[in-house]
Design goal:
The complex is a heterodimer of chains A (147) and B (72). With 147 residues, chain A is an all-beta fold. Chain A has two domains: 2-75, no CATH class; 95-141, no CATH class. Helix content of chain A is 0%, strand content 33%. Chain A contains no helices and ten strands. In chain A, strands 2-1-5 form a three-stranded antiparallel beta sheet, with no helix packed on it. In chain A, strands 3-4 form a two-stranded antiparallel ribbon. In chain A, strands 6-7 form a two-stranded antiparallel sheet. In chain A, a hairpin with a 6-residue loop joins strand 1 (2-5) and strand 2 (12-13). The radius of gyration of chain A is 28 Å and the shape is elongated. Chain B has a domain at 29-55. Chain B has strands at residues 2-3, 14-22, 34-40, 50-55. In chain B, strands 3-4 form a two-stranded antiparallel ribbon. Classes of the chains: A mainly beta (147), B mainly beta (72). Chains A and B meet through strand 8, strand 9 and strand 10 of A and strand 1, strand 2, strand 3 and strand 4 of B.
Chain lengths: 147, 72
């Protein structure tokens, strides 16, 4: 939705637009119904719902382009950074795991593993760890071994 | 699967002991295998925050006279 007004505190829903192309969300195209003759006196506020928010490792700025009265493409001088307070971004979550100890590492025994885990961000009380151990099938289950 | 039950600050070291992991015959595995860890940091099942692996150590090969109890 697009709002417009003479200043940012008196915005109303704008009816100045003919089409809105959202075919690719990374490049939204908004076409006005006609020439906007007094753009310097207007403030437009575009609200986009449903946009995916990237994490802190992908924080390319949002930029705007428009066509002026001479059909020249103009660009916003500075982009709007994701980390400018518009979105609450979170840095990439990373974790490390090491095999601290492995007791009773003998074929046929049941081992006791001690795994050491660290991570770079806080975990909530609902965090879950999933451990996957490889499964080795008996050679007797190989269909080439037993008919 | 390990369910957390308290909030933990970043960069805390956790030690997880896991019992009763069967060890295969040395000849049934080719080299060291991997143990995978998947972390869901907030438990909301909406995304996987990290997947990492650690190399397991292969059980040593057995001598001819070793007795191995594979089941009881």
């Amino acid at each position: 939705m697009v709002y417009e007004g003479s200043n940012s505190s008196s915005l109303t829903l704008s009816n100045s637009w003919k089409t809105l192309s959202l075919s690719t969300f990374s490049s939204v195209t908004l076409t006005p119904k006609g020439e906007i003759t007094n753009p310097s006196a207007l403030v437009y506020n575009m609200v986009c719902y449903g946009g995916a928010v990237p994490d802190g490792t992908n924080s390319a700025a949002i930029t705007g382009n428009w066509v002026d009265t001479s059909n020249n493409l103009q660009s916003s001088s500075t982009g709007i950074a994701y980390n400018a307070g518009l979105f609450s971004t979170r840095g990439a979550f990373t974790a490390t795991i090491t095999l601290d100890k492995k007791r009773f590492s003998t074929s046929g025994f049941k081992s006791l593993y001690t795994l050491k885990i660290s991570y770079n961000q806080a975990l909530s009380a609902s965090a879950v760890f999933y451990f996957d151990f490889p499964m080795v099938l008996s050679s007797n289950l190989d269909n080439e071994g037993v008919v | 699967m390990v369910w957390n039950n308290q909030a933990l600050s970043a960069s805390t070291f956790l030690y997880v002991d896991i019992f009763n992991i069967d060890q295969p015959k040395n000849g049934d595995v080719s080299g060291n295998t991997k143990i995978g860890l998947t972390v869901d940091a907030d438990g909301d099942f909406s995304s996987i925050d990290a997947y990492i692996e650690v190399t397991d150590s292969q059980p040593p090969s057995n001598a001819a006279g070793d007795i191995i109890i594979l089941s009881c």
